[in-house]
Every structure is written in C-alpha cells, then in structure tokens.
Amino acid sequence: MLAYLKGVIVTKEISGGPVDRLVLDVNDVGYELSVAHSALLQLGQIGDSVTVYTSIAIRESEWTIFGFRDVSERQLFNLLQSVTGIGPKLALGLVGTLGIETLVEAVLSENQKMISQAPGVGAKVAQRIILELKTKMEEFSQTLGSKPLEPFVGKSAVFEEVTDILANLGYTATEIHAALKKAKEKNIEADSAEELVRFALKALSAPQSV
Predict the structure, then answer these.
(1) 36-57 tens-digit pLDDT
(2) What is the mean pLDDT of the chain?
(3) Distance (Å, rounded) from C-alpha 206 to C-alpha 210?
C-alpha cells in the first residue's frame, strides 16, 4: 500500500469543484493526486517539498491516488466510504468542504443541514451518514489530538435550524461551526434558535470582540 508520498510540488490545478489536482515529483517520477480544494491551498506552493498521505481507489482499469494533509484526514475519508452509496470523490468532497472537526461534530449532533452543505450531498445521504457512522464517529473522535466539541445534546432541531439560517445568509460550514463552537464555549443555551443566531452573527461579524 502507498501510505504517503514525499516530493516536490510541480503542478496545482483548481477544478472549480470540491476535488482539485496536484502533481508531485518523487525521485523524478510524477504522481498525479486528487486532493480536496482546501488541502490544495494549504499543502504548499509549486517548488515546495511536502509530504502527502495517500489512499488509492481502483475502479476497473482506472487508478486514482487521493492525497491528504494528515493521517486523520485519510482515516475520515476511508470511514466515509463505508457508508452505503458514498464513493471516494464524494467522501473527499465531504472532508474538504467541512473539515474533520466540523464533520465529526455534525454527525454526533445529527446536524443534517451542516452535512448537506457538501457538494452532491442531499438530505437522504446526510441522514444515511448519521445513521451509519454515528457510533464509528464517536470512536474516531477519540483518536484525534484534541477533544471534539460536545454537541448540543437533544437540540439537533435547533442546531439544524441555526445552520440553515446562517447558510442561507452565505456563511460557509467552517464559519458556522466556528460561531457555534464559541456559543458552546460561552454556554449559550441551544433552546432558542433566535438566541443562537444572534450570538453567531455577532461572532461572525466581530470575532475578536466576542
């Protein structure tokens, strides 16, 4: 198994979608990798020497190497593919769009709206991810270096409503997650969507003052 590649970035191509392309020169051999857009932006610049963790998908005669910034990203990618109907590209889109912490907490909080922000993920797929992965995600969260944010237990409907409102206002999953994390840290109750939205908007507009 190809666990990782260490080499020099030769090409970075932005596709406009959730999956981009990276070419890595490893001992004069060029490896083409499919990477999440977020990973492409953070891995480095052309000419930089980097280490990219990998996973290979084989479909008939086609081999695709998927690249990740770290082992945890790859583990989550593989975990997502255990869900019925989710292939590697959809899994990579989920990891790249939401990120590890946001995705883990969305599943644990049963926040279907948050999960549905990833490209190609509708309500049914999001529901299936929660149903099939919640127990596994609890176990996965224990392997992370930092303790994940505890979800708003029993308040998933309010959590989803707030997510939906903020998403409709144009905020990304990462921004929404950051605002709700601050709400949790400051013990803002999740009983009222209005109160959470008010706090989140304040956090998003002036994060240094909240």
Answers:
(1) 988 888 888 999 999 999 999 8
(2) 85
(3) 7
Asked whether residue 7 carries a pLDDT value surpassing 70, the answer given is: yes
- CATH number for the domain including 148? 1.10.150.20
* Interatomic CA distance for residues 50 and 19, integer angstroms: 19
> 193: which residues sit within 8 A by CB, 6+ positions away?
158, 161, 162, 165
> What 3 state SS string does 108-151 have?
HCCCHHHHCCCCCCCHHHHHHHHHHHHHHHHHHHCCCCCCCCCC
Tabulate helix, strand, coil % of the chain (nearest 5). 50, 20, 30
Q: Which of 177, 141, 172, 184 is nearest to 18 (CA)?
A: 172
**Mean pLDDT within 107-124:** 90
- Please give the C-alpha separations between residue 200 and each of 27, 39, 102, 172, 207, in angstroms, as whole numbers: 49, 26, 15, 13, 9
Distance of CA 165 to the CA centre of its chain: 20
Single out the residue in 69, 95, 117 at which a domain terminates: 69
61 and 101, same domain (yes or no): no
Mean pLDDT of 115-132: 93
pTM of structure: 0.75
Q: Which domain holds residue 123?
A: 72-209
Write down the pLDDT at residue 150: 53
